[in-house]
Amino acid sequence: MERRPTSHDVAHLAGVSQSTVSFVLTGRSGISVATRDRVLRAAAELHYRPNLAARSMRTQRTGRLAVVVPIATMNPLTLLSGAISAARDAGYVVEVINLPDEEPDRGGRLSDVVDSGQYEGILSFTPLPAVDTEGGPVVLPVGEFDEAMHMTGEFTDARPITEMITHLAAQGHRRFLHLAGAEEFPSARARREAYVETITRLGLHSLGIVANDWSAAAGAAAIAALPDDAPPLAVIAANDLLATGAIRAAVRRGWRLPDEMAVTGWDDHLQSEFLVPSLTSVSQDRERLGAYSMHRLIAAVRGEDPPQKPERLLAVVWRESTESPQS
Predict the structure, then answer these.
(1) What is the pTM of this model?
(2) How far apart, in Å, are the Cα atoms of 56 and each of 26, 50, 64, 136?
(3) What residue numbers bound the domain in which 39 lies?
(4) Domain final residue, candidates 22, 37, 58
(5) 275 vs 4: CA distance, rounded Å
(6) pLDDT digit string, tens, across residues 158-194
(7) Is the Cβ–Cβ distance between 59 and 265 less than 8 Å?
């Protein structure tokens, strides 16, 4: 059987003392960033995992973190992926815990998690019920979603809408249409407001705000309802499904894309690159946001300064639906 790597092996590879390895893996302050990175790289290279039970007995630390989500059937998967990877790289084990669907039961379940003594920190991407955390683990709600998993945090930033409209206006577009998402979503409201503000500020003509849904069927119906003299126009869709429906309806009407109708989406779904024409969309780096949120929790657990907020989590990916092949 292959020998399991030890902290002594990590110390030897990193060129530090065994106590320094222990200090890094238990979150002790006073370790330089360079030394901490060297130890973590060595631990990752050796696939070293500390003995959490022994660590807990020695340090009163469990080496465990929890991420709580409010609805068992809806996990923010890419956020979780980034968060779990960041925790693992820092030497922690992460458990994902679903809170009950019913609001009155969530507080009791969260209290059980807090009082269990199993976790040094608890991260939530949604608001949490008020519970007593005094003397317990660090509890950090980062507010990227509301209780219904509607996006409320970083990804409600609608500046890419402004960027896309400005770019299309510079190409010569003067007539625009917005396919809006469902009104109850903060992200849909933010994109609608950015559309109205940019159209007004640039002196452009809006054919309206329609759809108020996230489905491809709604996007197709909105384009099918336009008058024959609507083109040339640019369609700003609140997500890629709306944009996909719009493209299909335009093709059925014989409108040439992007010359007679340009289209933009949002989410940059995997299939969007392979539509005909390929769809200009907004990519969202949810994995990096998840990692940043976990780094915030780990810094709070260790009593360290919070990490720097990442930039450019949203980016416009320009493709054929707005760009002529020769452009």
Answers:
(1) 0.71
(2) 10, 11, 10, 15
(3) 7-58
(4) 58
(5) 49
(6) 999 999 999 999 999 999 999 999 998 889 999 999 9
(7) no
